[in-house]
Amino acid sequence: MPANDLQGKFMRVNIVQAIAFASLLQMACITFAQERRAVLSGSVRAAEDGQPLQDVLVRVVGISAFTLTDARGFYRLERLPQTKVDVVFERIGLVREVVSVELTELENTLDVSLRYVSFKSAEVIVTAKENAQGGELGTTSRIERSAIEHVQASSLADVLQLLPGQLAQNPTLSGVRQSLLRQASLSVSAANPSAADRANALGTAIVLDGVPLSNNANLQTNLTILNSAPGTLPPFASTEGRGLDLRQFSADIIESIEVIRGIPSARHGDLTVGAILVQTRATAYAPQVRLRLNPQTFESTLGAGWNLFEKRTSLTAELNFTRSQDDPRRTEETFSRLIANLAWSQQWDNAARLTTTLRTNFYTTIDERQVFAQDRQQVERFAQDRGLRLNLSSILRFDDDSRAKLTWTASLNYAEQLGRFQELITRADGRFPLSDATTDTTKPGIFGDIEYLNRTRVQGLPLNLYSRLELTYKTLFSGTSHQFFVGTEFRLDQNRGEGRVFNVFEPPRQNYSVGERPRPFSDVPALVQLGFYLEDRIAAEILGKNFLAQAGLRFDNIQPRGVFDGTFGSALSPRLNLTLEILDGIWLRGGYGVTVKSPTLSQLFPDRKYFDLVGFNYFAPNPAERLVMITTRVVEPKNPNARYFSATKSEIGVDLSIGGMSANVVAFRENTAGAFGINRLPVVLTYPRFRLVSAPAGRPPEIAVAAIDTFIGAYDMPVNSRDIFSEGLELTLDLPEWSAVRTSLNLTGAYLRSRIIDNSLFFNTDVIFGTTPPNRIDVFQSGGGRESQLLTTSLRFITRIPELSMVVSLLAQTIWIETDRPFNRGNQPIGFVDRQGNLNLIADLPPQQPQPGLESQRPILWLFNARLTKELPSGIRFAFFVNNALADRPLFFNPATGQSTQRNPTLFFGAEVFYSFQ
């Protein structure tokens, strides 16, 4: 994008945000009729010694009223509805407490005692907890620090196994890790994820400390050779066109995680599936050291936090280093990670009306396969991501009880992504013609070497900018509590990397007249998004029962041409969540919403395709007498219909909390329209053929045009033609501890049924690769796709022994149903592409329905894991785990593919030592 265009966009965005800011301030001045409001106050103390606890977050569920305790441990919440409310008390290092209280008076008192997180405490939580009546009314799971520690996760991906429907995996770092929420995998193999699985990961937002991270500017890809499937992954580790690599996030520096799988708040944009909200630490805590070791991975983490200047300033520093080998016996394949976090938080006045937080995050990941000593092909793979994230946020509260506040957030993420690979290429057919032309032309080429070492390098410099301006206003009106959110967002994704670089006369392996050319990323335009949203969170009482609602409306403009018009579309997304307490402890809830995700730069702006067509080939013994004439044709892949893809989500569920037992059951349905996939398309090109006129000695021959020939080739193109359908049922059940054996039960499970259909035309390009040039390419009504089903349960037995400061958990995971089958396109052509490149469709043909293929049904499968965490004196903690304790890996023969695979992860174990300086 030219600098003046980019500057113009920034100016327009600033004007829009200025207008929005003025509107927000005007809203803050609106006054509502005064109603009877309740006040809740009290003190928070440590259960161990009775000392007051400062900086404990006290919030009311459903209306998001909150405050922090002062140095005396005192808190005060005003303007609350006179009804029954749930109050949450939480702080890093303390066991989270939820207390129900009836606010019958104007002045109400509630004193609580909190325990420090310790395995001496019977309340320590080591599983994910459903948070149906929290700030997000859509289905949300919350994973606390104690649960993350007990899992002994090496990355964010390992923590997700605590969610309903997620399968336990070994904490390895040997390959790219992606999320897959509320969808049964639709991939034939993990090595080549399906378009549905890629869209699911891309449509899951990763929100780090309030800032959504973006993978839209990732261009780390390679040109797929035509005898591979369309969309084959590049030879180096890359998440281009997909979600972020979850290996990038160490679980050791995460304080808590919330996973939104239901209808998200209107505050969340650029997503379809849901959001993973990751919170790191930005407060004082004792210095900590953590070491983790398993057969593949060594990980160490250092961290500490300090309060300064009368506790109005806090500083947090954390460092994580990880080294992993795919196979302990081989040192050539490794993964390394380095993360350094620094967080500064400042309270500018005693009343904490203005606070500012600055977070810096430096990260480096290296995934490489070095040359094996005995490898004649000298194959090498290397992928490195390193970057710097800056996140600045400020909160301005207009009054002491935070009734109105203004939040501003800005983030910059600048990274270098480097991928490279090398391979010794041998041409069995001898010297082959090469050209370096980058335009449509015919000119002499050269004869390449029979054998050479290709080195290809792909360097990207993605830049992601993000800003949010939001006004929050809380009020009581006619006995109903309202919390309004009004905000605007700006996002920019850009890549100015060197691009894909190699010697054009030593190119990567290709075939079928496909040419290879370098590509600079500087010719890729930037992607700009504007978002506006309005939301009201309502808490009321209906017939003596609590009622909660979350109603929002969001507008997204992708690549704005104006405030309300975008090059790649603009969308209005309504979202609604309702929750009603039908009986004491029994809640009925439901939701409906629309979510929208922008395409990535690689999907919007694919590289040009080059074809080198040989019109004359004269390879004389004397190099001076040789001549090869090559006609280069350049194809500009363009998708005029490229635009955002969207999901329509609905769910209904029941939440129970009775006598220490809690249960959550939710049924959901999600339809995603217009997701991107890679299709192989034909192209018809003309080029001249030459004849020999004379062959003089000592110089190239003289030639003349003999005829104009036609070549039919193929190229891969991103197309937004996939529709994805998912539905299912999720279950979570927590039973109270059986005191006789000090054991509680946690059951999670899910039934998932997912399907993907390609609605574009299918071109039978396979005939191009035969020995005889085809006269036409048959065209079929596609409708091809795949369907999968998964029914799984995870039963956890959790035994707490406070006297021994020990927690033991056993997992029994069962896959009851796991099936998949393809949907084949119709076998009757509906048209053809002729040798002139014309698409000829047959009129008045009846529509053809996709034909289901052979179903693969796997038998029931069990997996047993065990974990133990033990606290020792002086702040030392030891943990041990073993996965697939029975080493059960049954072999399954898939009749649809004719291949056998081993199920279940391998037997795996590891240990961890943690020390906290007291």
From TrEMBL:
GO MF, one example: siderophore uptake transmembrane transporter activity
Membrane topology: Multi-pass membrane protein
TonB-dependent receptor-like beta-barrel domain residues: 346-776
GO cellular component, one term: cell outer membrane
Keyword annotations from UniProtKB, A to Z: Cell outer membrane, Membrane, Receptor, Signal, TonB box, Transmembrane, Transmembrane beta strand, Transport
Keyword Ion transport: no
GO biological process: siderophore transmembrane transport
Residue span(s) of domain TonB-dependent receptor plug: 139-275
Protein family according to the UniProt entry: Belongs to the TonB-dependent receptor family.
Highest classification ranks of the organism: Bacteria, Pseudomonadati, Chlorobiota, Chlorobiia, Chlorobiales
Pfam families (UniProt xref): CarboxypepD_reg, Plug, TonB_dep_Rec_b-barrel
Cross-referenced Gene3D superfamilies: Carboxypeptidase-like, regulatory domain, TonB-dependent receptor, beta-barrel domain, TonB-dependent receptor, plug domain
Protein's UniProt name: TonB-dependent receptor
Keyword Chloroplast among record annotations: no
TM region positions: none
Entry's localization field: Cell outer membrane
